[in-house]
Amino acid sequence: MNDEAGASEELGPVVSRHPVANQKRWANAGWALVIGVLTGWVGLWGLVSAGEDGSAGGHKAVGVLLGLGLSGLFIAVTQTVRAVRGGPAEYFEVRERGVVYGSRRGAAGWSWDQVATITMGGTDTENGVTRRLGTGYRCLLRFADGRRARVDGLAEQHVALGIAVLSNCPDVPRLTGGEWQRRWGGWLLAAAAACLAAIAAMILYLVGHPDREQVTVDSRGLTTEHFVPGVSETGVAVLTLGMLACLVAAITFVVLFVRGRRGY
Questions:
Q1: Cα(first)–Cα(last) distance of the chain, in Å?
Q2: Mean pLDDT, the chain, integer
């Protein structure tokens, strides 16, 4: 980001300043990484050590641990990316004739008539986790020069910042962030169908590999019967988790499609 202090001064005096708590992002990434690595490692260890003797409840616990591990790693990566992208001492300034976004790497300013679109979004309900991660509020500003500025819940007085932008840009198109759902509606349905097809394939695999009795005859003519499982318990657990994941994904794709058709 280039230093554009002169251009910022042309936007008039500062009305309000909104520093971003990027130090929270680094802390979030740290604890999420620790949780992700620990739970993921325990989950993998449980999956390997349980083998075919593990109970159904044990396999469910392993699935929960692996899910927590993946979630922790995802949060760690996203929080780190946002912290690096924002840079040290990230801030927003509402000025009399525009908005400024900057950090120690420099600043950029835009007049109100250079705001091209405003995308507002966030969760329906706030809680401790969304407040900590800053995901309970989102405001994306797109400018005429193609650049963007993202405001989330970790910006100080973020709601007041969003209101100031909206009040100074009454004629700018306001988006919800879900426009892509209408544009990619066909692909969402195709993805849902692919998930259902994957579930059917896994069910067919289980049905096609039933448990059976295997008879062997030794050199003396003695026959021995052996029980041969079609699919191991670990395999059944993995396929079950896969079917659940595909089912959740299919439902998600359908919900996104319906919301897009309704214009939410």
A1: 34
A2: 79
